Amino acid sequence: MVDVLQQVVNGVAIASVIALVAIGITVIFGLTGIVNFAHGEFLVVGGFLTWWLALQGVPYAAAVVVCALAVGALGVGLERGLWRFTLKAPINGFIISLGLSIVLQHAVIKIWNPSATPVSIQSPVSGEIRLGDLVISNVRIMVIVLTAAVLGATFWAVERTRHGRALRAIAEDRDTAALMGIPVRRYITAVFGIGSLLAGLGGALLLALFPISPFSGQSFVIKGFAVALIGGLGNITGAVIAALMLGLAEAFSAGYLAPQWTGAYAFILMIAILLFRPQGILRGTEGSRVT
Amino acid sequence: MKGRRAGRPVLLMAAAASVILTIGCGAQDEPAQQASSGNGKCAPLKIGSLWEETGQFAVYGIAFRNGARMAIDKINAEGGFDVAGKKYCFEPIELDTRSDVATAVAATRQVIRDEGVKFVLGPAVDTETIKTQEITNASTVIMFAASTILDSALEGQARAGGKAHYLFKTSSAADTREGSITAQTKAFLPDTDKVALVATDDSAGQVIGDSQVKWFEEQGWSLTERINYPPGTTDWSSYLTRLKRGSPDQVWVNYIPNEQISILKQALSLKLAGEYSLFSVDPASYLDAFPEGIEGATVVMSCNPKCPYPPGLDIKPPTRQVVADFWKEWSERGYEFTPGTSTATLIYDYVFMLRDAISAAGTVEDTDAIVAELEGMRYEGVLDEELHFDENHVAVHGWDVCLAKGKDVECVPGKAPTS
């Protein structure tokens, strides 16, 4: 039983980071129809910026805030400079994201990591909680609690605020939302910023748990898309549920099945779900259209 | 207004393109040849130096490259070497394989076809080496590489006419190595009963793991579980939780140094075991990762193969001056001490052996004659007092093994097996 609980803790910790990436992907798609493959690189930029700030002696908590804001600003800048011009043809936005992914990857290598090797920091939180044989490191608790708080705030903002209603209206029908006086372009910019901020936060939290390399983004963006698809593209609640499923599937397959295949099990699960529920666990949007 | 709107994306695309070009060009701004290539009084003799300078295995590749540079610089600074009355200096052609098989193959073809080299150093890791050695052997180019899985490629193929006649493996046979490391670990930690093994699920991880499991049995240890994790893993906690079920006394971790440090940290946070054995991790890296040592756990490290001794490291010094001099120069050159640094010694001596073999053969072209000289050579170097190749062109040398208890580290310098 302890063993099972330990695997739950392991799975939830990694699910937290995946969820932060997936929510950015899913809300951006929900609003714009753009499949943003560069989103994983936002996580990497966040991780490396945190690592660099830590090397400069900046406390971890301050580094997390700075890097989340910086990556959020990067997202806003890229939306205004690139994706804004592709809203009428989201496929172009997808192509741009592919190229941008490579550019950002190499920018990280060029700026911070010429040898492209993984980097890590000393754990920002030491110690652990022991419940009998169950050992939960405080850093994992920190990551889970922080993620839960951020996701809770995001969910509340989308479901319970005026801005959230506006976002949902844009996702439902962008033209009608615009006719109702909602500043659609501004909301799209804001969503790119917030989605990127969450990915930057994910990178900072990931670095607290594991080493991060300039290529880590690829693996997380694939998982992020898997989660967004399983949850229903555009659906935040679905993304959180799917992230938990994927994280737990990875943890339990590593713990109880053939370990070499750990990476595959989660995607087998994804295929199975999409075969039986093509719309995802919860219904997603199909992405807004601009006419 | 319309024209302005249409112009902005074009301008932005142009800006993005210039960023890409800047980054792309930036990757080329470091000179391909950083090592010396003679002083003008000797004829240049090109030598390929192909290493993983970027990518997953850069931690090894950069160390190898620097080891090769040190040897080449030293030979050239001494005025080169005589070959049938003519002075030669090595001119290294350095290329980055980017930890990628296709790039390594392309680089090997490039140095052979375009540069006309007869000698190649590297690459460091298995998947690249196993493909590039096919090219060098077919071109009768002598190649030095350390990859673990070359043992099987060389078995019975090093003889004249064999498929791997021009290939020399600079690291001792995996089986011999694991035998000596497990024996020394047993000497350090005699009370071990149950061991678990965690390694990368790739060719080197499999080969090293298979050999270790065999030697665990020789030591009378029982294996509780063996896990091969997918390459690229960054979270090992689920695998380590699984290993904990078997309550091992000692956990063996293979084989990529920086990954092992991360695995050790996660294992310690899970209180997995009291003893750990790390492959190819040296005391300097250990103390860098754990400046205060580890409380409540003992760590055995097998350097790969000679432990680096950065200045100021307070551990028992190496027994031979040549080893201390090597690391002193390494430090003076400003080379980093990273978890893969020790592998630099797996190429350094061989550049001198190649120099001596070329001189003795009296030719820079006839690689068969140079191979014959290398086969019979014994060399006193950093790796060993009597470094030599066996009948399969596999190097014979010892491995340093260290024990860390808290901040105290004790090392036993390795010596080549006598039989």
Can you offer a commentary on this structure?
The complex is a heterodimer of chains A (291) and B (419). Chain A is mainly α and 291 residues long. Chain A contains 11 helices and 2 strands, in the order H-H-H-H-E-E-H-H-H-H-H-H-H. Chain A has a two-stranded antiparallel ribbon with strand order 1-2. The model of chain A has no long low-confidence stretch (mean pLDDT 88). Chain B has a 7-stranded mixed sheet, with helices on both faces. Chain B has a 6-stranded mixed sheet with strand order 2-3-1-4-5-6, with helices on both faces. Chain B is globular. With 419 residues, chain B is of the alpha/beta class. The chains are: A mainly alpha (291), B alpha/beta (419). At the A-B interface, helix 1, helix 4 and helix 10 of A face helix 1, helix 2, strand 8, helix 8 and helix 9 of B.
Keywords:
heterodimer; A: 291 residues; mainly alpha; two-stranded antiparallel ribbon; 3% strand; B: alpha/beta; seven-stranded mixed sheet; globular
| Radius of gyration of chain A over all CA atoms, rounded | 19 Å
Helix content of chain A: over 70%
Structural class of chain A: mainly alpha
| Major β-sheet annotation of chain B | 7 strands, mixed
Beta fraction of chain A: under 5%
Shape of chain A: globular
Mean pLDDT of chain B: 87
Order of helices and strands of chain B: HEHEEHEHEHEHEHEHEHEHEHHHEEEE
Question: What oligomeric state is this?
Answer: heterodimer
Q: How many E strands of chain B?
A: 15
Note the overall shape of chain B.
Answer: globular
**Percentage of helical residues of chain B?**
40-55%
Biggest interface, chains and residue tallies? A-B, 46 and 42 residues
Order of strands side by side in the largest beta sheet of chain B?
Answer: 8-7-9-10-11-14-15
Report the biggest beta sheet of chain A as strand number plus sense, adding barrel if it closes: 2 strands, antiparallel
| Quantity of strands of chain A, as a count | 2
Strand content of chain B: 15-25%
Number of helices of chain B: 13
Determine the N-to-C terminus distance of chain A.
56 Å
